[in-house]
Amino acid sequence: MINLTKNQKENLADILEGTNFSHANKDSVIKYYCVDGSELDETELQLYIDNFDLITPARTEACKRIDEQLQKALGNPVNESYSRVEQDTFPYQRLEAEAWLKDNSALTPTIDQIAESRGVTRDVQISKITAKTDYLTNLTNTNIGKAQGLKDKVKASSDLDFINSINFEA
To answer: Which one of 35, 151, 156, 164 is separated from 56 by 20 to 30 angstroms, measured CA to CA?
Structure first.
């Protein structure tokens, strides 16, 4: 008789997937077979099941899920507030603002055009850019830290239910 833990029972199909083993349930008796059709020795199957690692693939999937949820969360504040065209100018605006803050004689052509069209001064526009850049940097860094902390917990855990249920929330 094969002895299975709760997790092994729940994941038996995953454990046997991609192996040379199959099983059939006939008259409430489960028999295990090799690919060649011969009945499998229960000791061999028990050894395989006992040594099968459910945790590593679950950890990999949980970390991938956390990364996807992080990416989705970080994309939202910018994508919902700014057009793609405007977002494409952010690196230039940030670099010009940083240069001007270090040396107020630095050229700021992108900022100058935006400020003039907006009807504000360069100082006001740079102040807005700096505030938004700081906000987005802090938001990004905080959420990256949260995601890394969750992944640390996943990597340290051997609790399959915990690993399978963990999610990132911004």
So the answer is: 35
CA atoms of 65 and 167, how far apart (whole Å): 7
For 1-48, write each residue's pLDDT tens digit: 566 667 767 777 666 665 655 555 555 556 666 666 666 667 777 777
Q: Which two tokens stand for residue 132?
A: 């938004």
Half-sphere exposure in the Cβ direction for 34 (13 Å, CA): 8
Assessment of whether the complete model's pTM goes beyond 0.85? no
Angle, helices 55-81/122-156, rounded to nearest 10 degrees: 170
- The domain ranges of the chain are 6-51, 55-165
Secondary structure (3-state) at 84: helix
Contacts of 3 (CB under 8 A, 6+ apart): 46
On whether the CB atoms of residues 59 and 154 are closer than 8 A, the answer is: yes
DSSP conformation letters of 91-158: HHHHHHHHHHHH-TTS--HHHHHHHHHHT--HHHHHHHHHHHHHHHHHHHHHHHHHHHHHHHHHHH--
Between the two ends of the chain, the Cα-to-Cα distance in Å is 47
